[in-house]
Specification:
397 residues, alpha/beta, Rossmann fold, 2 domains, 9-stranded mixed β-sheet, 14 helices, 32% helix, 17% strand, globular
């Protein structure tokens, strides 16, 4: 362990930073065992967003194989409604020695897993219904580590930790993505201020949201660019399409998750005001089942789409909130790279092309737009490794 690391650990035990919004609470150095790690007492939540509550070594399938060390971290952040919260995530350090100025760092934004805590990437295990999806980006992330870049991976608000997960609510996702960078630098000062954001699917939309939010923060981060792979978009249109037709579909899981996010973004929207009796009975499963479980026929995958909504439901507030969640509304001031597979059946290539044009209309510089003709939603994660690294190398110069 470096002298710089030892000094940082010693100082962290006695020094706390002033907070403009929340009273600071000193860090507890020894976290509770097991899943108690994710459940800090409420007294420990107030503090500067991005400061560490506690951390411990991480092993098992959730850890990245190419890392010199993997660390589970619980850090302070701010909820979608402005309250102090804890968010969990992973910090992975590369095996290469830190260069002058420190390791550049990638903050990774994961794709849709669901809203249940058991689905969180940092809780991953071989028995998890989300296991396959949590493992999907590991080869890409390991490649970043092999380049000598640190990788941090937020679970997002309410996923792994207490509270509902505000699915596709950009500000909530952005806080998780950016605050974990500050937590990582607190624990490891040898991490550089040079940052890039990379995300896939839900995480593509989240990455774009974080890139837009970064300009509103006065922190130390030096954001060099953002990559969005098959980013989620046009939630309002997809929600409406998901409530049409009489043939049950696994896609109904996303309809339920869209509603979860909309309710988190606008608490005046109530599930009972828009959902049919049949759908309302299923709605609590959003907080107990991963997305793949919600897609099964004994859950949302078994309900006819045209039976999801009340016939006389007032959908105007819901539509307004879903529109706010669409990333085409964002203003981004750093270089943007967008990646899309033409065989993608989850994020339509046409909607990504339309999103690109909307972002350009809002002033974004689309530095690179990469299309893979023979790749689907998850195939791009491996096909894009070399081009992704090449683009990020230029950003980190």
């Amino acid at each position: 362990m470096s002298l710089l690391r030892l000094a940082a650990l010693a100082l962290s035990a006695v020094i706390t930073l002033p907070s403009p919004g929340f009273a600071e609470t000193p860090r507890q150095t020894t976290p509770p065992p097991g899943l108690g790690f994710y459940e800090p007492p409420d007294s420990m939540l107030p503090g500067t967003p991005g400061t560490v509550i506690w951390s411990r070594a991480l092993s098992g399938v959730a850890a990245l194989k190419s890392a010199a060390s993997n660390e589970l971290v619980l850090y302070r952040s701010t909820s979608v409604d402005g309250k102090p919260i804890a968010v969990s995530g992973i910090i992975a350090l590369p095996k290469k020695p830190a260069p002058e100025g420190g390791w550049p760092v990638i903050t990774w934004a994961h794709g849709t897993l669901g809203s249940a805590d058991k689905c969180a990437p940092s809780r991953d295990n071989t028995r998890s219904p989300a296991y396959k999806f949590n493992q999907a980006p590991h080869k890409l992330l390991d490649a970043y580590l092999d380049e000598g870049w640190a990788v941090v991976m937020t679970d997002y608000e309410g996923l792994g930790t207490k509270g509902p997960h505000p699915y596709l609510v950009g500000l909530s996702e952005a806080r998780g993505i950016l605050d974990i960078l500050l937590a990582a630098r607190e624990l490891h000062p040898e991490i550089s201020k040079k940052v890039a954001i990379v995300g896939h699917s839900q995480g593509g939309q989240a990455a774009l949201s974080a890139a837009a939010e970064a300009k509103n923060r006065g922190d130390e981060l030096d954001l060099r660019g953002v990559t969005a792979l098959a980013p989620a978009s046009f939630m309002g249109i997809l929600f409406e399409a998901g409530t049409m037709g009489d043939v049950p579909s696994e896609g109904a899981a996303f309809t339920a998750l869209f509603l979860t996010g909309a309710i988190a973004g606008d608490p005046e929207i109530q599930a009972a005001d828009v959902l049919s009796d049949e759908a309302l009975k299923l709605f609590p499963e959003v907080e107990t089942k991963c997305r793949v479980e919600l897609s099964r026929t004994d859950s949302w995958g078994g309900i006819a789409p045209n039976k999801i909504l009340l016939e006389d439901a007032n959908l105007l507030p819901l539509r307004a909130q879903l529109f706010k969640m669409h990333p085409g509304n964002l203003t981004i001031e750093v270089p943007v790279r967008i990646v899309q597979g033409l065989e993608d059946e989850r994020v339509n290539p046409l909607q990504t092309l339309m999103l690109k044009e909307q972002l350009v209309g809002k002033g974004a510089i689309i530095d690179e737009y990469t299309v893979y003709s023979a790749q689907d939603h998850f195939g791009i994660l491996q096909s894009d490794i070399e081009k992704s690294k090449a683009w990020l190398r230029k950003r980190f110069q």
